[in-house]
Each structure stands twice: as C-alpha cells, then as structure tokens.
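User: Can you recover a sequence for this backbone? Please restate the input before giving your answer.

Assistant: Of course. Working from this structure:
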C-alpha cells in the first residue's frame, strides 16, 4: 500500500507544478468544461501511469538492486529536470475539439511528465507496481480535474513558478540521496 500512497502524492505534486494542468485549464477555458475533456484527462492519467508503471516493472526485472536504485535516481533527475526546465507552452489559437487528439496529447504528456517518471521510479522498486500505477492515476487525475474545473482561474490562483521550482528542488535532493545510497555512500 505505501507505493499507492507515495505514487498518489508524488503524481499529484508533480502534476500540480507541471505543464499538463495548465494545458487542461486552458483547454477547459477555450472549449468549456465539458465532460469529454474530463474523461480524456482521466483516461490519459490511467494510460500514462499504467505504461510508466509497466516500464518501471519490466526494466527493474532486468536489474540488480544497485542498478534499480540508479534507475530511481535517473527517473528522479528526469522528473526534476522536466519541472525546472520545461514551461507551459503558449495557448493554442484554435484548440482542437477532437476527443482522440486531446486524449493522445494528454496521455503522451502524462507518460513523459514528472509524474510519469515518478510512477516509473516507484514501480521499479515496489513489490506491486499496479498500486503505483493506480496511485499515479488518482493523484494526477485529481489535479487535472481541479484544473479542468478552475479554467482560466488556474494560472491566476496557483503559484506555478514557486511550485515548479520547489518541487523540482525536492526531487533533485531525492535524486542525490538515492544516488548516494546506490553507491553505498549512505548508511
């Protein structure tokens, strides 16, 4: 069960600070907060977290304990880098109304987002990677639902810059500790 709760909290924090929530809020403002967009958000979170957990589980099966710890370190570094370096893009002039296109873009974004990397890392070391996928789905989906509901208010009310930098710093610290642990430099 700890992998579920860790994935839920990590995915929620990373999604809160990430680009996907801004994208969903902007789409919701432009298209209206329709149920189709909300379904696409949850579907994207489920598929993105599921694929990330499966990848983490499959890769970890090929690795020894020290290599698994380095995989976690790399995933944490990628998550920190994604949050620190990649900012939300510009608002599209004519957002698509295609459910399939929206779901595909959001699913790819979820898989390659900080939340996706964190789910991969947790699934690599968890005894039950499905729980990490489920936690990532719930955490990411809850934040995207809040962004969907907030629409244009999202960017005005959520301090995105400080959140991005703060969570990226925490992930960088976690990556450093994980790397030191993998090298046997921590007790």
């Amino acid at each position: 069960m700890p992998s579920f709760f860790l994935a839920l909290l990590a995915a929620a924090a990373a999604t809160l600070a990430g680009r996907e929530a801004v994208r969903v809020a902007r789409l919701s403002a432009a298209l209206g907060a329709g149920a189709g967009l909300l379904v696409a958000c949850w579907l994207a979170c489920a598929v993105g977290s599921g694929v990330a957990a499966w990848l983490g589980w499959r890769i970890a099966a090929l690795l020894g304990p020290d290599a698994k710890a380095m995989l976690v370190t790399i995933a944490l570094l990628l998550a920190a880098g994604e949050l620190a370096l990649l900012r939300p893009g510009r608002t599209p002039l004519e957002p698509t109304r295609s459910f399939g296109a929206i779901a595909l873009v959001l699913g790819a974004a979820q898989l390659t987002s900080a939340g996706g990397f964190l789910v991969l890392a947790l699934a690599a070391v968890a005894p039950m990677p499905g729980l990490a996928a489920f936690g990532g789905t719930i955490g990411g989906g809850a934040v995207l639902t809040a962004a969907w509901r907030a629409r244009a208010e999202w960017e005005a009310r959520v301090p995105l810059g400080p959140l991005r930098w703060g969570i990226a710093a925490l992930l960088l610290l976690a990556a450093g500790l994980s790397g030191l642990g993998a090298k046997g430099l921590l007790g």
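That completes the design. The chain is about 80% helix and 0% strand.
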